[in-house]
């Protein structure tokens, strides 16, 4: 089991960028595939991206995820933020290298960090 803590959320202007961090304790994060999800107000949580345990990076549209093995963290960079990106962002870990985005594939979740995109 690994404990996860997200950080880096806050208020960002539209068009800006933001980097979130997922810090792990209790185990080495390089033993896990790590996914990012978000939950906007009044909506269900949605998966964004997953970085396989055998990969150093993952990219999907405006989202880029990477590992820092020395710091035992995984980051999520979001570019060109829009108001629709306002949500609580979560990281989660799974042992499988398949990196399924299905929510039940993840066994450990962080508590989330709020991202608000507004001018």
Task: Compose a concise summary of this entry.
The protein has 119 residues and is an all-beta fold. The protein has no helices and eleven strands. 0% of the residues lie in helices and 50% in strands.
Write up this protein.
With 119 residues, the chain is mainly beta. Helices cover 0% and strands 50% of the residues. The strands form two sheets. Strands 2, 4, 5, 9, 10 and 11 form a six-stranded mixed sheet that branches. It starts with a strand and ends with a strand. The mean pLDDT is 96.
Residue stretches low in confidence (pLDDT < 50, at least 5 long) are none
Strand pairing plus helix content: what structural class? mainly beta
Question: For the terminal residues, how far apart are their CA atoms?
Answer: 40 Å
Q: What sort of overall outline do the alpha carbons produce when their principal axes are compared?
A: globular
Oligomer: single chain
> Strand-residue fraction?
over 45%
Mean pLDDT: 96
Count of helical regions: 0
Q: How would a textbook summarize the main sheet?
A: 6 strands, mixed
Name the helix and strand elements from N-terminus to C-terminus, one letter apiece. EEEEEEEEEEE
Query: Can you give the helix content as a percent range?
Result: under 10%
Radius of gyration: 13 Å
Number of strands: 11
